[in-house]
């Protein structure tokens, strides 16, 4: 007999955990199941060591606010990203208050967000960026300095033995955060399991087929024993990271036609040496190298994972044809369809700087990677830092362009949807899943809004246009999440 569920979540990452949590709050009578192909949840992009864990709020990420051809800087996208992160913070705050999430320090910690640039051109750009943001309510408290003594109090590692006469500048937002999305995912899914949700690990979805009654027949196999099976679902969400493309292609929905993915991997340099860690409490971002994708913007990050503080530097781009860290060597070839072949070829021919960048990154040995670190930390020693393999990112290709963002692809009837892309990803999981609910459940959504506003009080409002509301909301969530600027 084939089991039937109301909602099937494919993939045990932060997106499925967030969507499952929201649906459970909205429809506690719905039967929810999550299938994860690995032996545990949060082992791919949601794992703490596979992502930057920044809590992307555009406080320090320059790629959300590029300089225009005329030299101007537009804060609109940075503000939009920050607005989205505030929705995530509000939901987490509510769930902490209700006891769904554990003590905030188990998944989120105060960590100032900084930007550090060198050279007259980038210094001039950063000052313009600061001027455009300093009066925005969501960026309240941002500081700017070109003074080595001031920057030394913010992040001492940046200033030690730095060459005299070198132009540099930094911004700092004390209210930044470090988020362990692996811990957050585990806590959300544990709560759903306790509430009766089926969480099945070592189960790989093999096919999805729409039935005449509007449900989806999903066939799977179990990694242990390889036993096959199937389940019917009224709604399917594909939150399988890089494999979302493959599964959506198998579903046959028209909306996935034309899409492709380009996989980019990464590595970090990492140290837990107390003498180094004690001198750095910040996430420091800089400008990307020429040809580098936005996800490869160099940054020196304080990370708190399982209560232990480390410092990471990177990422250094790597290449693998796999769409997941635990994917298939045939992923990049297996995605090819007549509908996306032309677009993928165009991307290949128009992104030579990216290919050149990847080749140069792959040629770096440990010493050369530490040389890159020394641009940030002049006193860095080779032996103090070890290399750590990060996760895989499957960047979206569509219309002949390589896109650096996240995108929800949903069937016209709303019966199936999936998420493609990467950054800002996990940090904006809540607004992404709210958008998905609105698109896939348009009839139910109006009735759900009162419950959603209980979970996220400012839902539907823009904080940045209401300074008093922005200040009040950020202060309340900071108090509940035990964040101190």
TrEMBL record:
Catalytic activity: (S)-malate + a quinone = a quinol + oxaloacetate
Cofactor(s) essential for the protein: FAD
Similarity comment: Belongs to the MQO family.
EC code(s) of this entry: 1.1.5.4
GO molecular-function terms, A-Z: L-malate dehydrogenase (quinone) activity
Gene3D superfamilies found in the cross-reference section: D-Amino Acid Oxidase, subunit A, domain 2, FAD/NAD(P)-binding domain
Protein name: Probable malate:quinone oxidoreductase
Pathway where this protein functions: Carbohydrate metabolism; tricarboxylic acid cycle; oxaloacetate from (S)-malate (quinone route): step 1/1
Classification via InterPro entries: FAD/NAD-bd_sf, MQO
Taxonomic superkingdom: Bacteria
Gene that this polypeptide is encoded by: mqo
Transmembrane residue ranges: none
UniProt entry keywords in alphabetical sequence: FAD, Flavoprotein, Oxidoreductase, Tricarboxylic acid cycle
């Amino acid at each position: 007999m084939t089991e039937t569920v109301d909602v099937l979540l494919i993939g045990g990452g932060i997106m499925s955990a967030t969507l499952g949590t929201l649906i459970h709050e909205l429809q506690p009578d719905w039967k929810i199941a999550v299938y994860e192909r690995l032996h545990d949840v949060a082992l791919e992009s949601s794992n703490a060591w596979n992502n930057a864990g920044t809590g992307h709020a555009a406080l320090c990420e320059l790629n959300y606010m590029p300089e225009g051809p005329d030299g101007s800087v537009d804060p609109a996208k940075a503000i939009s990203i920050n607005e989205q992160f505030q929705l995530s913070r509000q939901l987490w705050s509510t769930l902490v208050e209700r006891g769904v999430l554990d003590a905030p320090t188990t998944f989120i910690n105060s960590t100032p967000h900084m930007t550090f640039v060198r050279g007259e051109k980038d210094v001039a750009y950063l000052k313009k960026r600061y001027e455009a943001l300093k009066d925005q309510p969501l960026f309240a408290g941002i500081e700017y300095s070109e003074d080595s003594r001031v920057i030394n109090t913010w992040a001492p590692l940046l200033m030690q033995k730095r060459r005299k006469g070198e132009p540099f500048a930094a911004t700092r937002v004390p209210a930044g955060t470090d988020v362990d999305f692996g811990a957050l995912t585990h806590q959300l899914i544990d709560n759903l399991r306790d509430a009766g949700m089926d969480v099945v690990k070592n189960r790989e979805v093999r096919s999805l087929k729409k039935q005449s009654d509007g449900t989806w027949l999903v066939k799977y196999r179990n990694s242990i024993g390889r036993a096959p099976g199937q389940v019917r679902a009224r709604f399917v969400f594909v939150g399988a990271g890089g494999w979302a493309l493959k599964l959506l292609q198998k579903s046959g929905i028209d909306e996935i036609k034309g899409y492709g993915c380009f996989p980019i991997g990464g590595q970090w340099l990492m140290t837990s040496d107390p003498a180094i860690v004690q001198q750095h409490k910040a996430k420091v971002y800089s400008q990307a190298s020429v040809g580098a994708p936005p996800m490869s913007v160099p940054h020196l990050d304080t990370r708190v994972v399982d209560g232990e503080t480390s410092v990471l530097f990177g990422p250094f781009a790597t290449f693998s044809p796999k769409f997941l860290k635990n994917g298939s060597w045939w992923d990049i070839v297996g995605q090819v369809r007549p509908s996306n072949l032309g677009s993928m070829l165009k991307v290949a021919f128009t992104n030579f700087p990216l290919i050149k960048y990847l080749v140069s990154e792959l040629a770096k040995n440990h010493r050369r990677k530490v040389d890159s670190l020394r641009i940030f930390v002049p006193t860095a020693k080779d032996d103090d830092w070890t290399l750590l393999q990060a996760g895989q990112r499957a960047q979206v290709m569509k219309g002949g362009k390589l896109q650096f963002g996240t995108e929800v692809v949903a069937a016209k009837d709303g019966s199936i949807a999936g998420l493609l892309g990467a950054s800002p990803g996990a940090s904006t999981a809540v607004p992404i899943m709210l958008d998905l609910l609105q698109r896939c459940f348009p009839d139910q959504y109006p009735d759900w809004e009162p419950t959603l506003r209980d979970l996220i009080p400012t839902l539907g409002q823009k904080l940045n246009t209401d300074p008093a509301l922005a200040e009040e909301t950020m202060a309340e969530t900071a108090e509940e999440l035990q964040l101190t600027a």
